[in-house]
Q: What sequence folds into this?
């Protein structure tokens, strides 16, 4: 019986929230995981233990500050050293906080652009030869606010708009060997660092056509589609927002 070597996915911000849901979904498919985290060590170890009970030695943890440039290439190098291959890069890690015009300082700009745009670019560049070797793919988690700006979040919106263009540019540059697509979530999870009362939440939900919050599984299933079933699709952004962008 021929032994099939498992595919390998590197997921940034892969140990909590949407990243962890993507990780669990890909793990179910038999994909080995390299999961990056920044500060969430306890969550990283818990997720690794959970997934190792299902399939031993299938999750490799990588801690890094994505704004520290040398660490970006190390994430790819360590993944290759551990597994010997790379098939999928999911640029999921993101920073999100308000930057009202008139109050923006350089540190805010650098934080948001580094995490949301610079890191995905240089990770993709480092991963390129390995993804070419496996005919792999890159999936960028963008945001509907990369197309329609969010009030009081101009720098975040700019960064995500850049990530959309990065998706299209990489698709053009890396074809035909590597497919590159993005997913733009709408209201899936409430932000961790932004307190919203029930009135504010209902106001956001009321602006969707489907009138309810999405689920992280909606994003994870789209990632699986882009990996397994989108063989003739590259440079595209899949919007999963319950119809939020239909609202003026």
A:
């Amino acid at each position: 019986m021929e032994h099939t070597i498992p595919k390998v996915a590197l997921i940034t911000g892969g140990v909590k929230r949407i990243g962890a849901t993507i990780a669990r979904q890909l793990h179910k498919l038999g994909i080995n995981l390299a999961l990056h985290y920044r500060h969430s060590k306890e969550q990283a170890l818990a997720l690794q233990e959970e997934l190792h009970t299902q399939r031993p030695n299938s999750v490799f943890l990588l801690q890094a500050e994505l704004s520290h440039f040398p660490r970006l290439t190390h994430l790819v190098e360590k993944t290759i050293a551990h597994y010997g291959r790379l098939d999928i890069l999911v640029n999921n890690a993101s920073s999100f906080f308000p930057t009202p015009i008139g109050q923006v300082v350089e540190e805010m700009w650098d934080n948001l652009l580094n995490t949301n745009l610079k890191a995905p670019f240089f990770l993709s560049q480092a991963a390129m030869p390995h993804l070419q070797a496996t005919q792999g793919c890159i999936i960028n988690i963008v945001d509907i606010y990369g197309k329609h700006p969010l009030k009081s979040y101009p720098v975040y919106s700019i960064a995500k708009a850049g990530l959309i263009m990065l998706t299209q540019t990489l698709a053009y540059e890396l074809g035909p060997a590597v497919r590159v697509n993005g997913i733009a979530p709408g209201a899936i999870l409430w932000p961790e660092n932004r307190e919203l009362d029930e009135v504010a939440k209902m106001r956001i939900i009321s602006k969707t056509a489907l009138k309810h919050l999405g689920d992280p599984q909606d994003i994870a299933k789209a990632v699986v589609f882009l990996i397994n079933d989108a063989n003739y699709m590259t440079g595209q952004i899949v919007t999963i927002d319950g119809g939020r962008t239909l609202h003026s």
Notes: Residues 40 and 211 are 32 Å apart (CA to CA). The longest helix spans residues 106-134. The mean pLDDT is 95. Residues 8-240 form a domain with the Rossmann fold fold (CATH 3.40.50.720).
